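Appendix C reproduces, verbatim, an entry submitted by the partner laboratory led by Prof. M.T., so that reviewers can inspect both the input and the predicted structure.
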Amino acid sequence: MEKLVAKIKEEIGEFVVNADAQVEKGNKAAGARARKAALALMNDLKEFRKVSVAEAKK
């Protein structure tokens, strides 16, 4: 679970950097990278929820 949380933190950082570049500088490529990071983040957050619920039931 610790590895999953670390991966989520890394993806959040990647998303923030790219989203800021798109908003502040109008960088279209950064927007695409931000969207890609958002999809990966969404999948990992779903996985975190599954693991977290399983841990709570122990």
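The first helix runs from residue 2 to 25. Additional entries are available on request from the coordinating office.
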